[in-house]
Amino acid sequence: MPDTNGRPGSAAQAAAGKGGAVTEARTDERRFRVYTFAVLTMGIAAAAAVSLWLDFEASDDLLWIGPILALAFLLAEQLGINVDVRSGISWTISFTEIPLVIGFFVAPFEVVLAAHLAAGIGTLLARKVAGRVLYNAGAFLLEITGAFAVAGLVKQASGAHDMTWIAALAGTLTAPLVSTLLALAAVRVLRRRMRVSTAIRLTGRILVVGFVNASVGLSGYLVISGTPKAWPLVLAVFLGLTALYWAYSDLLREQRDMEALSDVSLMVARSGQQAAARPAGRADELVGGVDVREWATIAERIKDQLAAGRVVLRLRLEPKDTMRMVVAGDELPPVDPAADDPLLRLPGAHVRHFRITEANPDVRSALLDRGAQEALVVPLRSANQLLGVVEAHDRLSRWRGFGKYDVQLLGTMASHLATSLDNRRLLATLRHDAYHDPLTGLLNRPGFRQVAKEPLREQVDAVVLRVDLDVFSTVSDALGYVWADRMVIAAGRRIRDALGPDVPLARLEGASFAALLVGCAPERAQAAAELLRAELVAPYPVDRLSVEANAMIGYATSSAEDDDQVDVDGLLQRADVAVRATKGGEEVRGYMASMGQIFMRRFQMVTQFRQSLEEGQLSVHYQPKITLPNRQIQGVEALVRWVHPEFGRLGPDEFVPAIEAAGLIGVLTSFVLEESLKRVRKWLDEGLRISAAVNLSVRNLADEDFPTKVARELDRFGIPPELLTFELTESGVMSDPQKALPILRELHSLGIVLAVDDFGTGYSSLAYLRQLPVDQVKIDKSFVLGMGTDLGDLAVVRSIVELGHSLGLTVVAEGVEEDVARDQLEAMGCDVAQGYLISRPLPEDRLEAWLQARTARSPGRHSETVLTLLT
What we know:
Layout: E1 11-13, H1 19-53, H2 62-78, E2 81-85, E3 89-93, H3 97-106, H4 109-126, H5 133-158, H6 165-189, H7 196-226, H8 231-276, E4 286-287, E5 290-291, H9 295-306, E6 308-316, E7 323-329, E8 352-355, H10 361-370, E9 374-382, E10 385-395, H11 404-435, H12 445-457, E11 462-469, H13 472-479, H14 481-499, E12 505-509, E13 512-518, H15 522-536, E14 540-542, E15 545-547, E16 551-557, H16 568-580, E17 588-590, H17 596-607, H18 609-614, E18 618-627, E19 633-644, E20 648-650, H19 652-661, H20 665-685, E21 691-695, H21 706-717, E22 724-729, H22 730-734, H23 737-749, E23 753-759, H24 766-771, E24 776-779, H25 781-785, H26 791-806, E25 810-814, H27 819-828, E26 832-834, H28 844-854, E27 855-859, E28 865-869
Parallel strand pairs: 16-17, 19-21, 21-22, 22-23, 23-24, 24-25, 25-26
Antiparallel strand pairs: 1-7, 2-3, 4-5, 6-7, 6-10, 8-9, 9-10, 11-13, 11-16, 12-13, 14-15, 18-19, 18-26, 19-20, 27-28
Helix pairs in contact: 1-5, 2-3, 2-4, 3-6, 3-7, 4-5, 5-6, 6-7, 7-8, 8-9, 8-11, 13-14, 14-15, 20-21
C-alpha cells in the first residue's frame, strides 16, 4: 500500500531567499492544513457511515486477532520500499495489503480499522513525526473505509453471505488506489508540478504491486485455511516475494540516485554557463563561479531526492570569503551565525548522522534550534579547502527517518557537488583572469569591450576616456619596473576613486587606462576629463620620493558627428587618436572628425606598405661617417625613406612605428639589409672597404631565426661580416633582455659589429654596457648639439668617450653640425663623427657624386682604396 506524505516546500527561503519565497511557503502551509482537515473530516464521516452500513460476521476471538493484525500492519510497514517523488511527495510501497486482505476474513471492519490506525499513528508518534499525524490518520480512515465499502458492494452484488475472495481482492486494491488519489490531490494543493503521464504511470505501478501483494496474501490464507500443513510453502512464497521486492527496491534506488547525481551535476554546469554569459564587470555574488540564486534549485533537487523536510546549503562566497545560506523546504529558524555550532564541526569529509533521541546535549540543542528531529551533515571539500556544507533535516516518511542509503546518497552527491563546484571555481578564475589585468585587478581590453557592449547597444549617451600617463618609462628607467608597477597601481586607484566604483575601468597596457562614462552628455565630457586629470597629475609618493606625473586624456562620445552608431572598439580608437593629438598646454582633447584622418593615414601606410615596397616607393639613403682625426670615410648609416604617392615624403619617425606595430618590421629590415649589402658589394668591387650600419628593432631581436637569415645574406653577397654594423637602442635591448641577449651574442659571434644607438638617453650604466656584446657606442645627438652652449652636455660627452674607451669600445658621435663640435670631439679622443657637417643622408646616386667630389682616394693597408674627406 502506498504511503502518501504531502509536505509544503519552497526554494531559497530564510537567509537565502526573497520575502516572496517565504510568503509562498506559508501560503502552501495554510493550504495543506485545510486539505488535512478535509481529509480527516471525510475519513471520520466515511468510517462512521461504513460502520453503520456493513454488517460483517465477526470472529469469536477478537482479543487476540486485533493485536495480531496491528502487529502485522506494523511489520508490513517496516519492510516497505520507499519511492520518492520530486514534488515533495513520498510513497512507501509496503506489504500492508497482505494483513488487510486477511483481515477481511478474520475480523470486522472496526477491528481492522483500529489495528491499522494503531500501527500507523503509533509509529509516527514513536518517531516524533508529529507534523503529519492528522493527515495520515485521515488517509488511514479513507483507505480502510474505502476498502471495506468496495468489498461490501462486491459481496452484495455476488449474493454471497460470507466474504468471497473476489470481494476481498477488490477491497484490498481499493486501499492503495485511495491513497494514491489523496497523494495526487496533495500535489495539486501544494501547487507542485507533475505530468499527467507520470501520475498515470505511478498509479498503474502501485496497483500492480498492490495486486501482487493482495494475491499472495489471499492465496496464502486460502491455502493455509484449507490445508494447515501447507504454511511452510506459503512462508517460502512470502519470503521469495520479499526478496524480489528488495531487489526491485535496490534497482529503483540506484536508478533514482544516478538520476539525482546527474541532475545535480548538470544544474551546476548549466548555472555556471549562465554565470559565464554575464558581463565581465558584473558584481554578482558568486559561489564557484555560479550565481548564488541558482543554488536554490539545486538545494530543492537534493531535498526532493532525500525526501527531506529541509535542505540547507552553506556556501562560501567569492570574493568576500563569507558563508551564505540557501534553504529549500521548511523555513529555517533564525540562528546566531557567530555561535559555535556542534553540527558544523566537520573534521573529515564524511556524512554525519545526528538524531535528537541519541544526541548529546550540545547536538540536541543545535537540532532544536533548527526545529529538526534528525540531520545529515556533510562538508564540501576540495584539496582540504572547505567550499561549503550540506544539511538535510527530517526525512519525509511516516515510518522511518534517514537510513544508510540516504547517507550514502548524500555523501556521493556531496562529492559530485564539490568536484563540480571546484571545476566552476577554476573556470570562474580563468574567466576572471581572461577579462582582468593581473597587476591592477581592473578590466583588461577584452573585459572592457565586453562590459561596454550593452550600454552602447542601448544607444545611451556614453563617453570613453583614454588616459595615458607619461611617468611609466621615467620611473622604470630611474627606479626599475617594480616601482613603475606601483605607480600604475596607484594611478588606477586614483582613477577608480575619482570616477566611482560602478564606472567600468580598464588598464589597456603600460600606464594607459580606459573608462566608460554611461549617461554622460557630450558637453559634460570635457569637464569630467579635466577633473580626472587634475587628480592624476598630483605628485605620487614612491617610498621616500615624490614623483611628478603628467597625464594626457582623450575622449570620444557615442554620439559621433559623422555616423549614427559607434561600437566600443571604434570609441577606443577615437579616444586613442584624441590622446595622440594632445600637446603641451592642451592635455585634454575630445575626438573630432578631422582627427580620423591621422588614423586613416596610418592605416593606409600599413596596408599599402608591401605594395609600395614592390613598386619602389621605398628607398635607402646613406649618411657617411668619418674617423677622427684623419677624416677617412669609415662607413655609412642606412636610413629608409618613403615617397608616398598621396602623402608625399614620409620620414621614418612617422611610418616605422606603424610598420613595427603591424608586425611588418622584419620585412622592412630585410629590405634595408639587402640594399645596404648590395651597396657594400659594389664598393668592394671598386676596391673600397666601407661598412654599412642598419638599425634594428626590438622585434628583430625577438626573432630566433634572425641571425641565420643575416648569415645567409652575408654569404649571398660575399660580404665580410665586419663590414656590417647593427645599431640598436638601449631600451630595445632591455625591454626583454632574456630574448635579446642570446640573439646579440649569436650575431656578434658571426663577426658583425654591434653598436648601441642614442647612448646616454636610456639605462646608460657601466653594468649595462658590460653585459652587452657590443663594439661601439653612439653618443646621442642631443648631447653633441648642446656641447657648445651647455657645460653639462659637454661633460656627458666627455664621460661617454672615456667610458667607452675604458671598455675597449669605439665611440661614435652623431649630430655633428659645426666645426667647433668636431674639433671638441677630436680633442676628447672620439673615434668617429656623423652629422650634417659631414653630409646629410643621401640617396645612392647622390652619395656616389658626393664621394667623387668630397673625397680623395689613397691606398690602404690591405690593398683597398681609402677615401679621405677633403677639407
